[in-house]
Amino acid sequence: MLQSQVTAGRGNAPVDVVITWVDDRTPGYHEMLREHARAVPDLDPARTRDTLEILRYGLRALERHTPWVNRVFLFSCRPQVPAWLDAAHPRLTVVHHDEVIPAALLPTFNSFAIISHLHLIPGLSDTFLYLEDDMLFLRDVSLSDFLAEDGRPLVFEAAKSTPRHESIRNPQAERPWNLALAEANRLLDEGFGVAPRGYVNHVPLLIAKAEWQAMVERFPQAFDATRRARFRSLGNVPPEYLYPQLMLAEGKAVRASPQSWRESCGYVPLEDIWPVTALALWRVRRQRPKWVTLNDNFGKHPSRVAERIAQSFLDRALPQPSRFERA
To answer: What is the CATH number of the domain that holds 50?
Structure first.
């Protein structure tokens, strides 16, 4: 089914984009966050701020480099909508969590739980592209950039292996992201045998709704636990990792070649040590990948120099406002 859906997407079938977004500057958000937080990492501002407004540049990139995209869905917590966004744009739909996620599970600050509901967004195309709000297209991209010759989706898997439970020495001190990767690997090992699996995060993800739903139904206990956790917790799984790895295991997806991975994927950790950020951005300009993720690794009080360097990169790469922005 997936192959026919995606292959059809090469022709006239619409392909939408879903972007998850959060901005903790919304009045009342911090109070709500503190009310539900259980530990210091739950209050990490790097997970909730949008000081560089990367989403603005991401939409500029979509308009400039992916004219084939049908509609854009922005998935956010009510009442969050960027002040600069033209929410009435005919190709844009703002969808709040409470329109899709059951009330008993809200509010949620767990990106895994939020992402697990993407396929339930009303009106979404059968095949869609999922982007995080810190991802940008830097060159023209076509749907074929995400597909193998036989129509199966490509998985852009890094060579570095992901963690497993047995490799984590102290689960109590481990990052929730690594624990979730290990849990996903445990589930995949049980179903398909033990195998090394690389990182597949920080890249756009082509998704078939039917296959995403099948994934949720295949691992009901894992997704129930994930959806009930308001913050990333032990026993959660990351859908954005589990989905492509499951598709590979079932023979429904194909690994992109190392050359394709290098040509397509860029990653910049935005660090407070500004020379590190400057060097990473210089490397991306030299590499000229098809897309890049600007991951917020700033501390509680980001370096103003590093922020200015990142802002200059964004302004140089995508200076022209898009039609998604208010005039």
So the answer is: 3.90.550.10
DSSP-derived 3-state class of residue 169 = coil
Domain interval for residue 134: 2-265
Is the pTM for the entire model greater than 0.90?
yes
How far is CA 196 from each of CA 50, 159, 222, 234, 315, rounded to the nearest angstrom? Answer: 34, 10, 21, 21, 39
**269 C-beta neighbours (distance < 10 Å), count:** 13
Q: Are 140 and 65 in contact (CB under 8 A)?
A: yes
Give 198's DSSP letter.
Answer: B
184-220 tens-digit pLDDT? 999 999 999 999 999 998 999 999 999 999 999 999 9
Name the helix (H) or strand (E) containing 191.
helix 176-192
- The torsion of the CA quartet 139, 144, 147, 148, rounded to 10 degrees, works out to -110
Closest listed residue to residue 296, CA positions, set 13, 52, 4: 52
Quote the number of domains for the chain.
Answer: 1
